[in-house]
Design the sequence.
């Protein structure tokens, strides 16, 4: 039987309490982690997985939704600590994860720096240094839209660009569940676009929300917000309408 476990992790970042929700998919053959948090998050993930009596050394695969620092900050440490784990990402993400191309989030931060007011620049400089410190990690397998992964009862890859060009979400047909990554987030109980002011292509992000409607989803899990409580299809349509003239 396929199990989907939400690893709600509470922590402080920039003196603000935050929660992220990596996911564990688990069956008798595989344990798959989806996204792995900020740097130095392995102990937090270990504690979260232990709530389900799962140890990190049992994880066989790690699927990356995209290369933002809160999703892949611990990726290189994972690969060093558990070299047997297979790292999987969209083919467009591979060069950014492996460090052969500069992070798009870093490019964005650098390109907007000069326009910032003087009092905002120290924090921006700190953020840029943080992005520069993220270690690259080798990707073992790349995927594209529509790929069907045979593990844990079956996983369908949904290319959901906008937040980043290589962003992916996942669909679990057995439970009619979408694992959204940052394609959508939950804010005050409703679905929203993740940080629209920092989304690299907002129009593309809205089209990705439309793409999610193609799936027979009864549940949607967001990296920021966890499990959505409500009518998934209706909530997605309301979000789309908010960005449609």
Sequence:
């Amino acid at each position: 039987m396929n199990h989907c476990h939400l690893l709600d992790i509470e922590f402080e970042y920039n003196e603000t309490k935050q929660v992220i929700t990596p996911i564990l998919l688990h069956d008798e053959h595989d344990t798959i982690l989806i996204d792995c948090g900020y740097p130095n998050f392995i102990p937090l993930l270990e504690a979260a997985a232990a709530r389900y009596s799962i140890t990190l050394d049992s994880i066989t695969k790690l699927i990356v939704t995209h290369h933002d620092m809160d999703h892949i900050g611990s990726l290189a440490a994972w690969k060093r600590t558990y070299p047997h784990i297979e790292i999987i990402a969209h083919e467009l993400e591979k060069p950014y994860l492996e460090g052969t191309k500069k992070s798009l989030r870093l490019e964005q931060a650098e390109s907007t720096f000069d326009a910032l007011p003087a009092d905002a620049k120290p924090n921006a400089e700190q953020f840029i240094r943080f992005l520069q410190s993220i270690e690259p990690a080798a990707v073992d397998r790349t995927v594209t839209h529509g790929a069907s992964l045979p593990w844990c009862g079956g996983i369908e890859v949904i290319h959901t660009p906008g937040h980043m060009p290589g962003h992916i979400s996942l669909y679990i047909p057995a439970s009619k569940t979408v694992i959204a990554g940052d394609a959508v987030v939950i804010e005050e109980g409703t679905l929203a676009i993740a940080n629209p002011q920092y989304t690299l292509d907002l129009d593309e992000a809205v089209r990705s929300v439309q793409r999610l409607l193609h799936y027979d989803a009864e549940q949607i899990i967001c990296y920021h917000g966890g499990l959505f409580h409500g009518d998934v299809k209706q909530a997605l349509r309301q979000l789309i309408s908010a960005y449609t003239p």
